[in-house]
């Protein structure tokens, strides 16, 4: 009886969080200024990327460095589908676009879905050679995949316009799209984590050999996590393209993966709540610390603007956080675990 009450209370708390997130998405879109809305849009997209990346890296324990590749696939697929043929003919300067590229047109929703599906299919095909190795070797293999996608984008101008990239992409990514998909992504990932597949993923993370001995099909579980992560990374890439309205191969370097890695480690590797908090801390924090690069007046002392000072201060904050919170902001805990702790303390 007591367990039923706790379960019902937790469901009410989850429902309240979802309703609050939906309300905030609507409120921010109609109330905040354009600059703030753009920052929130960026944060929402990176929540999608960080939460999905955390599934393979944090929950399943596979040191994968592939996100920039799947984000690039999603961004290019979405851009090709939503940019009209006349715009492509005008801006493709290196080589004329292929006939099939000109013929491919779709609404934004379908474009995002196709971007996710193609990313997932690529991940599925990659899983066969990739998961023949573990640990640092897995990191090297997946890191190479990101470089391959960038090189393919540069060397196929009839599809991607080469190093010039694709411009004049319709700006569809408002908060209804980014916020709504972010909420859906978090719910989908949490449902996977708390399912039997999620428990198997954690078993693979903790001891893959023991999981195999207990009858867990580790290849199947790792492939599921990898493909699911790639799907949402592809969707996130499509949203990013429709927010920036311009993409090029230089946008999808290893720095993007490194940024996501910082976010999930800072938030707490394996924690979806931590991935969300880490995204807000890194993406919003960096944006609002821009004043450190500008001239300032402190106690009557005028200082000149120092470009890059915000990165210095932010790096010091990261060092301090990791020194005093070795497992990140939340560790491996989720939001519900903090409520349980408070209840136990009482």
From TrEMBL:
Keywords attached to this Swiss-Prot or TrEMBL record, sorted alphabetically, are:
Cell membrane, Membrane, Transmembrane, Transmembrane helix
Q: How does it sit in the membrane?
A: Multi-pass membrane protein
A single GO cellular-component term from the record reads:
plasma membrane
What's one GO MF term for it?
A: branched-chain amino acid transmembrane transporter activity
Intracellular or extracellular location(s): Cell membrane
Pfam families, A to Z: BPD_transp_2
Write down the superkingdom of origin.
Answer: Bacteria
| Keyword flag Ion transport | no
Q: Is Ion transport one of the keywords?
A: no
Segments passing through the bilayer:
12-29, 35-56, 68-88, 108-130, 137-155, 175-194, 224-247, 253-286, 307-325
Kindly give the InterPro entries that the UniProt entry links to this protein.
ABC_transp_permease, LivM-like
Q: What is this protein called?
A: Branched-chain amino acid ABC transporter permease
Q: Which organism is it from?
A: Poseidonibacter parvus
């Amino acid at each position: 009886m007591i367990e039923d009450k706790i379960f019902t209370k937790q469901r009410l708390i989850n429902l309240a969080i979802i309703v609050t997130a939906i309300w905030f998405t609507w409120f921010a879109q109609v109330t905040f200024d354009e600059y703030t809305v753009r920052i929130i849009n960026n944060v929402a997209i990176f929540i999608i990327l960080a939460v999905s990346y955390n599934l393979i890296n944090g929950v399943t324990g596979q040191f994968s460095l592939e996100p920039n590749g799947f984000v690039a696939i999603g961004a290019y697929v979405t851009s090709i589908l939503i940019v009209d043929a006349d715009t492509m003919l005008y801006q493709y300067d290196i080589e004329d676009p292929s006939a099939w590229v000109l013929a491919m047109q779709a609404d934004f929703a379908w474009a995002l879905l196709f971007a996710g599906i193609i990313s997932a299919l690529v991940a599925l095909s990659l899983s066969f050679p990739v998961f023949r190795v573990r640990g640092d070797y897995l990191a090297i293999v997946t890191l190479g995949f990101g470089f391959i996608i960038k090189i393919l984008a540069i060397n196929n101008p009839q599809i991607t316009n080469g190093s010039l990239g694709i411009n004049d992409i319709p700006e569809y990514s408002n908060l209804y799209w980014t916020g709504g998909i972010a909420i859906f992504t978090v719910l989908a990932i949490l449902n996977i984590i708390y399912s039997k597949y999620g428990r198997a993923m954690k078993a693979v993370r903790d001891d893959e050999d023991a999981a195999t001995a207990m009858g867990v099909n580790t290849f199947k579980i790792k492939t599921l996590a990898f493909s699911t992560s790639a799907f949402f990374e592809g969707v996130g890439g499509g949203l990013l393209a429709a927010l920036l309205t311009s993409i090029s191969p230089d946008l999808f370097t290893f720095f993007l993966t490194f940024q996501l890695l910082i976010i999930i480690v800072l938030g707490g590797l394996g924690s979806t709540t931590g991935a969300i908090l880490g995204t807000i801390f890194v993406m919003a924090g960096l944006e609002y610390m821009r004043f450190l690069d500008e001239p300032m007046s402190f106690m009557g002392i005028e200082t000149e603007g120092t470009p890059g000072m915000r990165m210095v201060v932010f790096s010091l904050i990261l060092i301090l956080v990791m020194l005093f919170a070795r497992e990140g902001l939340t560790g491996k805990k989720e939001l519900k675990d903090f409520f349980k702790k408070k209840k136990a303390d009482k």
